[in-house]
Write a structure and sequence with these properties.
The chain is of the alpha+beta class. Among the domains are: 273 residues, Beta-galactosidase, Chain A, domain 5 (Distorted Sandwich), CATH 2.70.98.40; 119 residues, no CATH class. 26% of the residues lie in helices and 27% in strands. It contains 17 helices and 47 strands. The strands form twelve sheets. An eleven-stranded antiparallel beta sheet has the order 1-2-9-10-11-12-21-16-15-14-19. A six-stranded antiparallel beta sheet has the order 8-7-13-20-17-18, covered by helices on one side. The longest helix has 21 residues. The radius of gyration is 28 Å and the shape is globular. The C terminus is likely disordered.
Length: 814
């Protein structure tokens, strides 16, 4: 397997691999759909965000050349994974090269079309004509859960396309190609179609058991399954290329909203180009460039994952916790906001709005909302992590946008949510959960899906978040001049922190208890949940570092991240409860990395950012799809046991990079960008391009050798001993580098003088060619080098303006 990284143009990042090196293909999507590819070129699970339905079966293509038909399982493919497409390549009988490009269209024309496209290209390198027959086939009915096909579907073909219609809902899916087919067939039996393909006998004159029209009554005879197939006959001249585009389009409102879209897709030659352009524009933002090749790749692919999961549901924008689905979880949304704020803050605001509108009348934040129906639930818990995390996310988003009017608009909601949080304290002053059941109904924690498990009462995780949420609420109130609530919530935060140290912290073990439950029993198991009082600075530095040191020992640490509990714990099992009792969750590892960085353990933090993404690149041995962030790993085998694309992990990775080596602090409210650079061992530089922060895009270079930060922000401050230089406007997008993995940040000042900073990865020396507006330069760079190159004029250093001091007190010890 090979990987390529393009620092300037993230859309060109790629993994090139043999099909045996990945367990699965890419999950792609636009605003209204997902479609999942396989390593064998199949496409399955086309899904509709407006109905939360999988509406098309798995799509395959067989090929016939000479007297032999090749089915997908008989073909070995080389794959290229791109942020927006999956490319499959193979050769038939050493005679015809085949390329299949699978993608879900994006861009203004098709970003809300429930569809997918496969572009097939045939190349004949020989000296004689080649005749190739293509046989696309698929199941034509949808299913919400696999094995439960939809009812009342009629299917027919019109000689060119196949349509299957749900007679109950009126929804239609249209399927076909850009060429006229030689044959179109429907069948109740997939094997009949396969046999016809195998012998090359699929034709308009096919015998019984294939149909031109299938009724729901006929489909009921075979568990409501209906299959369709096409035959396309293509002659490829010597040295020539021929193409065929296949597409499926669905719309819940029937023919007028589906067939015209299919025809437009089949004839629009810019669909793939426009999809790439969409990713080009988006991926240009939040480019964190680092000397670490793995972290740099991780940032680029985290954003690609984030773009795929954004959906527009009938009840608002969001990203589900389990693609494809319409379940929008408050906890997950709050953490996603931390990453999206740096990349796409408009989505953050829309996703938060769904939950701003979903708060219960008494002020409790719900657990999840269904994006289609609007159904919501809190699992009968009086309190969970959803409430404090929403307040924290609100503060983070404010700092990304500096939109006072937005805070003012939601002040009543912020007060309502915070007052409810305070109302759930026990007589010791701690947030207290009175659960009435087990697992989902009995766990007040992020680890809320452990079967038959209970974690309630005063839970350390929830209280740590609540302490900080009160400070966040105080800050939000202060922003809009609500002094009364600012002072009250700040004081309540201080009291709750003291209560945590009095009742949840053990001096003899130098750690927090897990909880004390409704029966008054303390659980003092040392688990990775200790990370929360460290992350939110509940204890003093000595205690925080002691906890982090204990978590760094061999019973927690693995080559792919940190286990949820120790291998020595009586509850330990490497995979039970979705890995929450001993498995490795990348999200936990990222919290751990941020906590390490905030407590002076910079090199350790960088190590876990490195290994977190390296695990995602492991491919088949790790059961991960390169370029996608996996959900969780077995704590023993260290292979992925969860989703291939975890919807929340990519955003969390971007957040972790931004708020560690990126030098940003999403909880610092100052009214201007402020950087606190870290100094990883052997690093000379860190850079970022077009990062959303403080209501604008920010581009900067941190020169760790000389303690200087160059940026395009006229107002910029930094921790000592760094000096901040306003270098002019960002013109980095005009720079081309070769090799492409070398990043460049360029600034142009008012005189037209341009300085270009070039940063090399640590893995090896490189000779770099720079091109900017027709000017070129070559630079020899050692591993990890940073060079400043002047191609136009002589730029001069000008200090960034000394911005006003913080007008608000900083969040307590964060």
């Amino acid at each position: 397997m090979g990987s390529s990284y393009d620092a300037q143009r993230n859309e060109f990042c790629a993994y090139v691999l043999h099909e045996s090196e990945t367990p699965y293909g890419l999950l792609l999507g636009n605003y209204k759909t997902y479609a999942q590819s396989t390593a064998k070129g199949g496409v399955r699970g086309l899904w509709d965000a407006d109905t939360d339905q999988i509406i098309f079966g798995t799509h395959h293509i067989a090929y016939r050349i000479g007297d032999r038909t090749f089915f997908p399982h008989e073909i070995e493919r080389d794959l290229t994974f791109l942020p927006y497409a999956q490319i499959s390549e193979f050769t038939l009988e050493h005679r015809v090269h085949v390329t299949e490009a699978f993608y879900v269209p994006h861009g203004s024309s098709f970003d809300r079309a429930v569809c997918f496209v496969i572009d097939v290209t045939l190349f004949n390198p020989g000296a004689a004509d080649s005749e190739v027959s293509l046989y696309p086939w698929a199941m034509l009915v949808g299913q919400r859960f696999y094995g439960e096909p939809e009812h009342q579907v009629r299917a027919w073909n019109d000689g060119r396309f196949i349509c299957s219609k749900n007679l109950e809902t009126g929804g239609e899916r249209w399927w076909g190609g850009s060429r006229a087919p030689a044959a179109v067939e429907l069948s109740l039996r997939e094997q009949v179609l396969l046999e016809a393909m195998r012998h090359g006998t699929l034709s308009k004159e096919s015998e019984a058991q294939t149909f031109g029209d299938v009724t729901p009554q006929q489909a009921e005879l075979v568990s409501r399954r209906i299959f369709g197939a096409f035959k396309y006959r293509i002659s490829v001249a010597p040295g020539a290329r021929e193409s065929l585009r296949l597409a499926v389009v669905y719309h819940k409102e029937g023919t007028e909203r589906s067939r015209p879209v299919l025809e437009a897709l089949l004839h629009d030659q810019r669909v793939l180009h426009d999809t790439q352009r969409y990713f080009t524009a988006r991926l240009a933002d939040a480019r964190f460039l680092t000397p670490s090749p793995a972290i740099s790749r991780g940032v680029a692919w985290s954003k690609a994952n984030m773009l795929r999961i954004v959906k527009e549901y009938p009840h608002g924008w969001g990203a589900t916790n389990s693609p494809p689905s319409d379940i929008l979880v408050s906890r997950d949304t709050s953490w996603m906001v931390h990453g999206f704020d740096y990349f796409w803050p408009e989505f953050s605001r829309r996703a938060l709005a769904v939950f701003n509108d979903a708060i219960e009348e008494n002020g409790l934040m719900v657990e999840y909302v269904r994006g289609v129906s609007g159904y919501k639930t809190h699992y009968d818990l009086n309190i969970n992590d959803d409430s404090p995390l929403h307040l924290i996310a609100m503060l983070h988003h404010y700092n990304a946008t500096l939109d006072d009017a937005w805070v003012r608009e939601h002040l009543a909601m912020i007060v309502k949510l915070t007052d409810y949080l305070l109302s759930q304290r026990d007589d010791r002053g701690l947030i207290y959960c009175r659960a009435k059941g087990v697992d989902l109904y009995g766990i007040s924690s992020w680890r809320n899906i452990i079967p038959y498990y209970t974690l309630d009462g005063a839970v350390t995780e929830i209280n740590a978040e609540a302490v900080f949420a009160l400070e966040a609420a105080a800050m939000l109130c202060a922003i809009v001049g609500d002094t009364e609530h600012w002072e009250r919530y700040g004081e309540e935060s201080r009291r709750m922190r003291e209560a945590m140290m009095d009742y949840l912290y053990n001096d003899d073990t130098v750690a927090f208890v897990l909880n004390y439950d409704q029966d008054g029993n303390y659980q003092d198991n040392f688990t990775a949940d200790e990370i929360f009082p460290v992350l939110f600075n509940i204890a003093e530095e000595t205690e925080r570092r002691a906890i982090l040191k204990r978590l760094s020992e061999a019973d927690f640490i693995t080559p792919v991240g940190i286990r949820t509990i120790s291998t020595a714990d009586a509850w330990y099992f490497p995979s039970y409860g979705f890995g929450l009792l001993g498995g490795v969750w990348p999200d936990l590892t990222l919290w751990y990395a941020v906590a390490l960085a905030r407590n002076g353990m910079t090199d350790e933090a960088v190590h876990f950012l490195d290994v977190s993404y390296a695990a995602m690149e492991g491919g088949s041995p790790r059961n991960t799809v390169p370029g996608e962030f996996a959900e969780w790993f077995d704590g023993g085998s260290l292979s992925n046991r969860g989703m291939y694309l975890s919807p929340w992990t990519g955003a969390k990775y971007l957040w972790a990079v931004a708020e560690t080596i990126g030098g940003l602090n999403g909880y610092r409210t100052s009214g201007r960008p402020h950087l606190a650079p870290l100094r990883p061992k052997d690093w000379q530089w860190i850079a970022a391009a077009r990062v959303h922060w403080g209501g604008r895009r920010c581009t900067y270079v941190i020169d760790l050798r000389n303690d200087v930060i160059y940026g395009d922000m006229p107002e910029l401050s930094a921790e000592e001993p760094f000096t901040c230089i306003y270098a002019g406007r960002d013109v980095s997008d005009e720079v081309t580098t070769s090799p492409a993995e070398v990043g460049a940040i360029a600034f142009e000042d008012e005189t037209g003088a341009v300085r270009i900073f070039v940063g090399n990865h640590l893995d090896r020396p490189r000779n770099v060619l720079l091109e900017f507006r027709g000017h070129t330069a070559r630079v020899d760079m050692g591993p990890g080098d940073l060079r400043e190159v002047h191609l136009i004029g002589k730029p001069s250093d000008r200090r960034a303006r000394a911005a006003k001091l913080d007008v608000l007190r900083p969040l307590a010890r964060v």
